[in-house]
Amino acid sequence: NSHLNPKYTFDTFIVGDANNMAHAAAVAAAGEPGEIYNPLFIYGGVGLGKTHLMQAIGHEMMNNNPQARVKYVTSENFTNELIYSIQHSTQKAFREEYRNVDLLLIDDIQFLGNKEKTQEEFFHTFNKLHENNKQIVMTSDRLPNDINNIEARLVSRFKWGLSVDITAPDLETRIAILRNKAEAEKLEIPDDALSYIAQQINTNVRELEGALLRVQAYSTMKNTDIDKSLAADALKALKLAKSKSGLTVSTIQSKVCKYYHITIADLKGKKRVKSIVLPRQIAMYLSRELTDKSLPQIGMEFGGKDHTTVMHSCDKITELVVSDEEVKQAVEELKDELKN
Ligand code: ADP
Ligand code: MG
Fold first, then answer.
1. Which residues contact 280 (CB under 8 A, 6 or more apart)?
2. Quick count: other Cβ atoms within 10 Å of Cβ 14?
3. By the 8 A CB rule, do 101 and 70 touch?
4. At what angle do helices 20-31 and 50-64 cross, to 10 degrees?
5. Rg of the chain's alpha carbons, rounded to an integer?
6. Binding site membership of 51 for ligand 1 (Cβ less than 6 Å)
7. Which residue from 27, 57, 181, 206 has its CB within 8 A of the most atoms of ligand 1, so it is best to mutate?
8. Which one, 151, 164, 235, 283, has least CB within 10 Å?
9. How far is Cα 224 from Cα 109, in angstroms, rounded to an integer?
């Protein structure tokens, strides 16, 4: 009901130099909500553990007090729910829902940029909660001052508490994260293989987890245990498959547009109607899956969108491929077509 991922707890969060300040602040906020850092503003690049850490605060608070009202929402969903409530005259219920919680977790707050109505609503939500000493935690890919087109009165409130960053994990932390993950998945992986993967993947934790999954899948396919040389082959195969496919983002875009009967301009544009948003998200997802382009590069090819938008789209479709038969079929058909 609080929409928390059960895996995102403090127990499963590995602490290292890159995140120890953020971790300490999160633990403190969970222990004495509303009392120490309010709001707590966690910022940093994609895939570095912001969402995980923020949700860990929610779990911890509910462990300490099962009655605690914890609400997690992405700023995009907050916006969508607000628009829906305006269209259906249910704004009162919307307000009650957000203004009567003990802990509000708002993820990826940078998406409030340019959204005046949502900023106005969030301003009042923030004030009400803060007045009542209710804990507010936000994440963002950048500092409050660097969020584009956001009201000064919000920026100043974002800085009332503590802003703390998470940076990319060092090698030792990456190894520790992999080891922990392997244990959780009951995978037997020798240390030299873990080190190898951690050395190869130095971008972010999300990519690290993805690499581990590839290695696992590769070992199943080859029906051999995981060792360093198998890990090397798996990661090489992944890189080769992507660069050799010769697929470009623009080929993927054309195919998706044809499939859904929409224009390239709409696909790259900003319209938020469902008939365009879904194809756009699928095209981003396929670009990520089938080319070796990075998130920012893909964002650029979709009319200069932020890398976090691409990431959200990928997450969304990954989810829908499992839960939505229609999306699953569309993705499969498109993949088949693109491979020929
Ligand atoms: P962000 O919100 O910063 O983009 P996430 O919180 O979604 O990143 O983290 C991406 C993935 O990496 C998640 O599966 C998360 O559990 C994992 N992760 C990130 N940091 C850590 C960490 N320090 N320890 C364990 N897992 C981590
Ligand atoms: Mg996140």
1. 267, 302, 313
2. 20
3. yes
4. 30
5. 21
6. yes
7. 206
8. 151
9. 44
Task: Give every CB contact of residue 193 below 8 A, 6+ residues apart in sequence.
Answer: 215, 226, 227, 228, 230, 231
- In the structure encoding, which two tokens stand for residue 74, read together? 């992405």
Q: Which ligand is nearest to the CA of 110?
A: 2
Residue 49 among known ligand-binding residues: yes
Q: Is 209 in the pocket of ligand 1 (CB under 6 A)?
A: yes
- For 139, the token pair is 């994440």
- Output the tens digit of pLDDT for each of the chain's 340 residues: 568 999 999 999 999 999 999 999 999 999 999 999 999 999 999 899 999 999 999 999 999 999 999 999 999 999 999 999 999 999 999 999 999 999 999 999 999 999 999 999 999 999 999 999 999 999 999 999 999 899 999 999 999 999 999 999 999 999 999 999 999 989 999 999 999 999 999 889 999 999 999 999 999 999 999 999 999 999 988 877 777 788 999 999 999 999 999 999 999 999 999 999 999 999 999 999 898 888 999 999 999 999 889 988 998 888 888 888 999 999 999 998 988 7
Does the CB atom of residue 206 touch ligand 1 within 6 A? Answer: yes
Q: How far is the CA of 288 from the centre of ligand 1 (A)?
A: 19
- The Cα–Cα gap between 120 and 134 comes to 19
Cα 5 to ligand 1 centroid, rounded to whole Å: 12
Nearest CA owner, ligand 1 atom 20? 49
pTM, to two decimals: 0.80
**Got the DSSP string for 242-306?**
HHHT---HHHHHHHHHHHHT--HHHHHS----HHHHHHHHHHHHHHHHHS---HHHHHHHTTS--
Question: Which ipTM was obtained for this model?
Answer: 0.99
Strand partners, 162: 40
Structure-token match 């993950």, residue found = 181
Q: Does 335 show up as a binding residue in the annotation?
A: no
113 is in an annotated binding site: no
Q: How crowded is residue 326: how many other Cβ atoms within 10 Å of its Cβ?
A: 9
How far, in Å, CA of 135 to CA of 70, rounded? 10
